[in-house]
Amino acid sequence: MNLEKLLATPHKRFNPLLREWLLVSPQRTERPWQGKVEQPPAAPSITYDTSCYLCPGNQRAGGRQTPRYSETYVFENDFPALLPEAEPLQYEKNGLLVARTDRGLCRVLCFSPRHDLTIPRMNARELRGVVDAWAEQFSSLAQIPWVRHVQIFENRGELMGASNPHPHCQIWANATLPNLPAREDESLRAYRAEKHSCLLCDYLQLELQRNERIVCQNDAFVVVVPFWAVWPFETLILSKRHVPSLDQLHSGERDLLGDILRRITIRYDNLFETAFPYSMGFHQRPTDGQPHESWHLHAHYFPPLLRSATVRKFMVGYELLASPQRDLTPESAAARLLAAGETHYLARAANENQRRK
Ligand code: H2U
Ligand code: ZN
Fold it and tell me: Nearest ligand to the C-alpha of residue 77?
């Protein structure tokens, strides 16, 4: 059966990483929309904001001072979700009321001293600095004996709950494997045990052969709208080499990771000519000291926007009660991202103004 036939009818797609199904309803994309329209927040245009707690030299909410940093800057979150010294407690009543303490460290990493410098507008050297900082944070946290997982993630934009427009990400390290990495871990291991190869290496080869959902690539990374994408413009960044974590990328690959991050985020911004909101993050090997040969480094982008800078997808109703569902097909989303181009719309506008003068 070919893909065209599938694209003409409601169908379910399987996510082999989480081992769950998603409903795709291609025939619904033309339905009318009279729902919520959000006002897009204006992108910051100032390089320094006196009231920003992440700008160099400013006071943070907790009373600490952000130093006058000149490249990237990492600090312990003043309001951490996890604490490193939590007493080990187990609570259990009849197998139904079950709880336990977890230890952890939460950090914030500023990408740049510049308040307005987002990933899509960074140059190669600045991007390399961010990639090196991630790799450094991963390996130093991984060396703490009780740390078994390190989650690096960025919330971009108010729609995704970012508390501040200054470009930054968070890093949470903890003593147990969180839900989603644990499910991916099981799937990657089971696939390796059954097929003696890597689920994501095999998936990448298939996507490259079929070329139906690839958005962009370089010598070390590929961006694809996964066959099982849930969010309208969800993408997956896969390393071409079977490498388990950021710290094991060599120098050339680190530059190429910066390159691919810049290119996919430019495409995102161009899609609706807005600072495209998203949550993104890396999935890497657990850090319990085991080799984890089944692990394959990747990043997920989960953007909420659906039709414009103001209309987002809501995960409600059927999604909350039954199964994820989408109308826009992953193939159409990939085609839209492909057409969005890699010259940032603000740079294009600036060039046009220059030409007119
Ligand atoms: P988000 O934008 O993704 O929410 O990340 C910002 C983090 O910064 C958030 O976790 C922390 C918040 O706890 N923060 C500080 O550590 N110090 C401050 O002065 C304000 C915010
Ligand atoms: Zn700032």
Answer: 1
Strand order in the sheet with 278-283: 73-76, 104-110, 168-174, 149-156, 278-283, 298-302, 235-239, 221-224, 214-217
Q: Which atom of ligand 1 is nearest to the CA of 155?
A: 3
Burial class, 232, CB count within 10 angstroms (exposed 0-12 / middle 13-18 / buried 19+): buried
Q: Residue 317's pLDDT band (boundaries 50, 70, 90)?
A: very high
Residue type, 180: L
Q: Going by CA atoms, what residue is nearest to atom 15 of ligand 1?
A: 78
Round to whole Å and give the CA distance between 226 and 184: 15
- Whether 304 and 278 have beta carbons less than 8 Å apart is answered as yes
Burial tier of 316 (Cβ tally within 10 Å: 0-12, 13-18, 19+): exposed
Q: Is 336 helix (H, G, I), strand (E, B) or coil?
A: helix
Say how far apart CA 192 and CA 213 lie, in whole Å. Answer: 24
> Residue 39: is its pLDDT beyond 80?
no
Is the pLDDT at 37 greater than 90? The verdict is: no
Out of 149, 166, 168, 344, which one is annotated catalytic? 168
> HSE (CB half, 13 Å, CA atoms) of 12?
10
Q: Is 168 a catalytic residue?
A: yes
Is 278 close to ligand 1, i.e. is its CB under 6 Å away? no
Provide the whole-model pTM: 0.95
CATH of domain 18-23+44-356: 3.30.428.10
Amino acid, res. 195 = K
